[in-house]
Amino acid sequence: MSYNKLKALEGNIEAISTALAIHEERRNATTAERETLSKFTGCGGIKEVLSIGTNTPIPDTMQEAVKRLLSVLSKAAKGNETLYRQLLQSLKSSVLTAFYTPTFLIQAVAKQIKDTFTANDLKMGTFLEPSASIGGFLPVGDMATHRTAFEKDLLTGLVLSALHPDTQVFIEGFETIDSQETEHNRFDVIASNIPFGDFRVFDNTFSKKGGIYAQASKTIHNYFFVKAVEKLNEGGILAFVTSRGIADTQGNQFVRDYLVHRCNLITALRLPDSLFMQTSGIEVGSDLLIFQKSGRKVTLTDREKLFMETTREIIPGSDQYTGHANKLFTLPKTALFTESRIQTNQYGEYVRKYRWQGEEADLQQTLSSMLKADFERFFRKNLFATPNKGIGGIQMSLFDCFNTNKAAQPNGEKRTYTGTLHKWMKNGTLVLFENQLGTLRYKQANCFSDMTVTFVPLKVSRINIERANDYFPIREAYFELTTKESEELAEYPKLREQLNKHYDTYVRKWGFFHHNDNKEFFSWDSLGMEVFTIEMQLGKDICKADIMHEPVAFKKIDTSIQLTPVEALASSLNYYGSVNMNYLVQTTGQTETELTEALAGEIFYNPLTDCWENKGKFLAGNVVEKCKEICTVLADLTGNAQKWAATSVEALGDATPELIPYEELDFNMGERWIPASIYASFAKNLFGVNTTVMYFDVNDTYIVSLQGHSPIAYNVYSIGSYNGEALFVHALHDTVPEITKEIMRNGESIRVPDEEAIQAASTKIQEIRRKFNEWLDYQPIAVRDELVRLYNERFNCYVRPHYDGSAQTFPNLSFEQFPYDDLYPSQKDAIWMIKQNGGGVCWHEVGAGKTMVMCVAAYEMKRLGMIQKPLIIGLKANVHEIADCFRKAYPTAKLLYPGKEDFTPANRQELFSKIKNNNWDCIILTHDQFSKIPQSEQTMLEICEQELQDVERSLEVLEESGMADNNKRLQKGLEKRQKNLNANLEALKEKLGEKKDDCVDFHAMGIDHIFIDESHYQNFYKFPVKLLNYLVIIYFAQ
User: Fold this and answer.
1) Residue 35 counted as domain residue
2) Could you give phi then psi for residue 735, rounded to 5 degrees?
3) Coil/strand/helix, residue 1007
4) In this structure, which long-range contacts are made by residues 422-428, counting pairs with CB atoms below 8 Å and at least 24 apart in sequence?
5) Structural domain boundaries enclosing 979
6) Predicted confidence band at 949 (pLDDT cuts at 50, 70, 90)?
7) Total domain count, the chain
8) Quick one: pLDDT at residue 408?
9) Are residues 1032 and 985 located together in one domain of the fold?
10) Is the pLDDT of residue 314 over 80?
């Protein structure tokens, strides 16, 4: 029976809908529902799913099914747009990876393994399926076997959990097994149809081991084999359906070597290329590899020696060779086929393909006979040892909805926490539960599962329980106060009074936080160090931190102060994000008319928004477009509004750059601002046929497709396998193809760069680029005028504003310890630019005074209320000079400049809490110290989403273009990048987790402005710069 896409899609929709309903209702599946769930086959053969949400039309026959699918996903997401995107992406990802194993193969493997255990009087205690899909290989285990399954795909994992409630399911990648609370950490049998591809997997354990383990992690199929062997009990069985890359690829010899030296090879069977046609509608080469772990192995068999090597066949009728294939498969009875011939695969490489022309029943019988023969000959009962149970923490089920009636745990054991939970609580929070003191452990398997909270008891004395009862009210009052004031930017005096009351009560009974053994007690709580720093030790004196007296998350707007118009303008920009005329009137004591005159040239009236705007904002951006829009409404204005708007138009006109004519423009083929239609017209003129040219801005790639046969493209502009179409793409990218040729060296055929062909291709490419300019010069005036308009509107419409800082007064700035008594004009201008724009780049020569600019700008912005807690970051070699400059410039400022000892793991948490709980005029850190500040979980989530969305958009745009079939290399590269990015992000999270303490994060510290000195040396600032919109970056020119 052939693969029916519509039927498969409808079956998937029914299964997903059923799984979601079962999860929502928290129950087991009925017999009928299990039948529905078992029909889920993923979208491996349904390429049309990639078109969902794009401009590519869905086939008419599938539109109704797709509408229903989106309705099911939308209902499941319950209005959560992020979850909806995750579910949709889950489906699209399965198009590339979901190829389900035929049932007959699983039945044959399962029966043989069970028969082997029975015949040898062995019991299968544990079974693992590391890439489970919907649990195809789970029947390998019997009723008494404890089964564990991993499935990374979200929707597939839901179906798996609903279909197999008696299995411990993790909707996570196999690479996370060491961090999961599996009931067993070693297994008697591991079987699966594993993923394949040259994308990397991040496994922290393998990363630390290095060597072959780190090498295996570079490709997912290699990783699965090595990791599975590590997770097998001695004598355990490993059975994987895998791509032929494991056995055939020369670069994977290290994996084959690893396998045969740690395991006995039982079965190596080449499967028919058409094996997955019925389940996924795809033809792909695959093997069935079965091993038995043998940790004390000494010698290799002849079969195993052959398995380590590869060979090539001569292509009939030529002197060329096929791709590499494993030597073992040259032996009889190592492949399932009735017909075998050499053909090209999907990559154009000649390989040997295998086909089975008979009935499926005959295929299953043949497979079973081969497996039986192999197991009878190569399985060793004496290797099978008593399994290492290795019981870890027990996970009730993925969705915590099955087998919930468990006996109550004794008080000394970990157990589910059912007490009060607050938003500010996190992992390691100290609580009193059922008269026991302990900590909380949070865990959420995935976005569908509920957060589980486990109570982990601590063995403590009764007196510490009494102390905890006096500590908890302080902690609760502290977090209620800080949360409300940071979120609402409003003062809560009653909460502050309550915090002081609880603190005073505690101190009277137990002493200051810094005295006795209070600090050790606070260390039991992951939130303890943050609470600890509401008390400060200054020398021998103990005092309360700033938060006990005033807000530290924001600065109260005090309109009673008297400011100059210029200072009031800068302050207004921070408080309100705009020019607030009422605020200016209150803080200066002047009228609106007086202010408009005093600030002439600094503020402009924008009739489009009916607001005043500062010069930096109004005269920035597309001034040409802005001027046009204001002119359209100018006639409708009256009185002062018309007068002010006319002044604004005049200022915009004066700021508008002169039009650059065509003759002065330098056009280069491939410039991204030139419409693709222009390049398409040129290609038509060059090749003589209609041509489609598309540009993908996401990954900066052009795609060119000729709409007919062009002798010019295939003869005049053709070098080797590169025709005019390919060279035209290189001309657009201004690159040269990497052309290779095959030569014989030391008796072996190798590929080397073909310098002559590369040079010829380069000449053709440069000729195409030159002809583009010649062709452009002969285009009609209308075409050239359009290019002039596009260029000027796109690039020649922005004005860099001038910053005049001469009016600033700099209160409290001292020059007593400096050899000069005033700032340079360039320094004043730079400080004013920073104050006006809330950030900027100062790229001045060495010795121009950038350190003073940083110090003064930070203090001034804090003084004016533009920022609350500035941070300066510098290199370790000169950060002390920055601190010394700040102290000299502002001797009375409240400056925090921690030393090396403050950043040791023991003191770091206390320092971070001090940053949060005090109103510092400035904080100065080294780049290394700053990197140790933990990022919030929300920030990490934003990073992951932002990086992945770019790649996912690229894949969608490629699919929309309709040219994905002709650009398989581009598509494959994007898919690989997507997978590798996932691995990179996991690695980043792991490294951050190791490097940074579980304490106050960057967001909670209240730092709202960063000055980065020497930032061009620090690549990692790509990380926060993307997420913080209030950074000031100070560069040094070299």
Assistant:
1) yes
2) -130, 170
3) coil
4) 422/476, 422/479, 423/483, 424/479, 424/483, 424/527, 425/527, 426/526, 426/527, 426/998, 427/526, 427/998, 428/525, 428/526, 428/527, 428/998
5) 938-990
6) low
7) 6
8) 38
9) no
10) yes
Residue ending a domain, choose from 600, 630, 655: 655
pLDDT of residue 1032: 40
Whether residue 720 is found in the same domain as residue 851: no
Question: Which stretch of 237-241, 703-707, 916-920 has the lowest confidence by average pLDDT?
Answer: 916-920
End position of a domain, from candidates 777, 795, 813? 795
Residues 120 and 222 in one domain: yes
Q: Cα separation of 1002 and 1013, whole Å?
A: 19
For residue 792, the one-letter residue type is N
CA dist., res. 796 & res. 656, Å (int):
8
Residue 329 within a domain:
no
CATH of residue 217's domain is: 3.40.50.150
Residues sharing a CB contact under 8 Å with residue 814, sequence separation 6 or more, in sequence order: 888, 889, 890, 891
* Helix (H) or strand (E) run with residue 266 in it: strand 263-271
- What is the edge-to-edge ordering of all strands in the sheet holding 452-457? 415-416, 452-457, 436-443, 430-433
- CA 431, CA 420: separation in Å to the nearest integer? 9
| Together in a domain, 154 and 124 | yes
576 and 638 assigned to the same domain: yes
- Same domain for 948 and 858, yes or no, is no
Q: Can you spell out the DSSP letters for 66-116?
A: HHHHHHHHHHHHTT-HHHHHHHHHHHHHHHHH--PPPHHHHHHHHHHHHHH
Identity of the amino acid at 873: I
Which residues, in sequence order, are bridge partners of residue 240?
Answer: 192, 289
Cα torsion through 279, 282, 283, 288, rounded to 10: -40
Would you say the pTM of this structure is higher than 0.90? no
Contact 489, 553 (CB under 8 A): yes
**CA pair distance 734, 731, nearest whole angstrom:** 5
- Are 906 and 1000 in a shared domain? yes
* Average confidence (pLDDT) over 524-530: 90
Task: Judge contact between 882 and 851, C-beta under 8 A.
Answer: yes
DSSP labels for 734-781? T-----EEEEEETTEEEEEE-HHHHHHHHHHHHHHHHHHHHHHHTS-H
Q: Which of 776, 784, 583, 524 is nearest to 669 (CA)?
A: 776
> Side chain identity at 557, as an amino acid letter?
I
Neighbour count for residue 846 (Cβ, 10 Å): 8
Average pLDDT over residues 588-613: 90
Which helix (H) or strand (E) segment holds residue 351: the answer is strand 350-355
N- to C-terminal Cα separation, the chain: 70
Query: What is the length of the chain?
Result: 1038
pLDDT band at residue 783 using 50, 70 and 90 as cut-offs: very high
Taking 60 as the threshold, does the pLDDT of residue 328 lie above it?
A: yes
Q: With contact defined as beta carbons under 8 Å apart, do 872 and 924 qualify?
A: yes
